[in-house]
Structures are given as C-alpha cells and as structure tokens.
C-alpha cells in the first residue's frame, strides 16, 4: 500500500513541476507555444514508451467515438492557460484555483450525469472551496 | 513582480475555468481509456494536442503581438521537459487508480502533492519563476480548499463503482 501512496503523491508533485516548467518556457515564448512543446515532447516520450512495452494501439481503440478524442485539444488550452497564469498569480494560487474549479465542475458533471454521490458532502465541499477562493480575494 | 495580496478577479475566473477544462479533459480521456487503455489514451491525447496546438498557433499567427521592445531571454533546455513530467503523471495515476487507492485516493493524494509542490515553488521561486511571499491567508486558503476537495472526493464521490 506504501508504493501506490508514494506514486499518487509523486503524480501530484509532477503536475506542479510540469506547470512550473511550462510557465518558465512561456516566459521565453508564449503560453500556446509552451503548450505545443509540452504536447510534442510528451507525445514523443509516450511513443517511445509504447514501442518499448507494446500495446500502444489496443484493439478496441478503433471503436471509440469521435468525441473521446476531444481531450487532447482541451488539454492544449488547459496547459496554455496554466502557463499564462503561473507567472501572474503564482504557483499556489494557480494550483488552488484550478483545483477548486476542477472540484466544483466535477460535482456539477456528476449531478448532470446522475452519477451516485453524497450530496451533503459535495455541497459542503463546494462551500469550503468557495470560501477559500474568497480568501484569495480579500484585501490586506 | 512583487506579490500583491489581492488577486485580480479576472485571473481568478480564468483559473477557475481552467479547472473546469480539466474536468472535461479527464472525462474525455477516460472515455478513450475505456476503449483502449491508459497509455493509448494519453498517447492519443498528446498526439491530437500537438496537432491542435499547431492549428491554434496558425489561426493566431496574424494576431501575434508585435515584437517586444526587449528580446525575451532564451529558455533553458530543461524548460522543455514539462511534457515528460506530464506524461509520467499519466503513467503513475493509471497505476494507482487500479490499486486499493482507487480514483478517490489517487485524486486526494495528487492534490496534496500539487499543493506541496506549489508552496515550495512560490517560497523559493523554483525553475526561474518569481518568488512570492506566503502569508497566513494563503495557508488558510490552502486548508479550506484542500478540506473541501477532500470532502468531495472521499465522502461526496462515495457510492461510485
């Protein structure tokens, strides 16, 4: 159980590292150019990995509906947006507000899809998140 | 740039909206993963993303800002490695969602890791980005947002397969 816990925390650290590196690259080019490099370098790395371990293009892939492929273009805007924000509002604010938006929209998506959820906890969670966001807005 | 204590509301909205994009991205990439596997899903997302980025750049080419009066400093080579870090994230999380941690544990611990990294990044201005002074209010915001997220993930998402 220790190994998955370390992996999950490391994955989070790497999300922060990725945003920090792309933010630095954007300072020398532009957020969209940084996002382009992020995707190209990731694509090359994953291609190499896939060729090494096999199973890159699984049998069922051809059956996926076209909309399953929207994630890539959305990711481009996501990475560009993070790279634009981080030098402006800092790493902590960027991480916190993106997490807040992810959680609140996730709750809404689950409601819309009718996914099972415990409503009181989700609602209270959203309230706490909005409170935390309000704190970033208060004057000194 | 010095740290201002108040965030521009426009920045806040953009960041919040960016989180919404992430929800959609995870949802669509998850769909792709159901038909294929996690590696294929991430590989395809990076491939289509590369093409999409080129299309966006071409569309915006005419609207690019005029050259700045002072040339921008060149980026060090390591600044190009964000994509490696992102690809590694996907490999790690695709392992942990299938461990006893499941999706909820993966999400919760991932958020903790992200916040720890961002606190260190601002405190010491890691990787060439500006240092920012952290105040008690930043920590209070961290606690509230992490507590809210933990509630949503660990209790709110309960009952998911």
Automatic annotation (TrEMBL), chain A:
Superkingdom per UniProt: Bacteria
Keyword terms: Membrane, Transmembrane, Transmembrane helix
Entries under Pfam families matching the protein: DMT_YdcZ (PF04657)
Transmembrane recorded as keyword: yes
Keyword Cell cycle attached: no
Transmembrane residue ranges: 36-59, 66-86, 118-136
PANTHER family: INNER MEMBRANE PROTEIN YDCZ
Protein name, as recorded: Membrane protein
Organism of derivation: Devosia yakushimensis
From TrEMBL, chain B:
Transmembrane portions of the chain: 12-28, 40-61, 77-95, 101-119, 139-159
Signal sequence residues: none
InterPro entries in the cross-refs: YdcZ (IPR006750)
Superkingdom assignment: Bacteria
Pfam families membership: DMT_YdcZ
Keywords annotated in UniProt: Membrane, Transmembrane, Transmembrane helix
Keyword rRNA-binding: no
Protein name per UniProt: Membrane protein
UniProt source species: Devosia yakushimensis
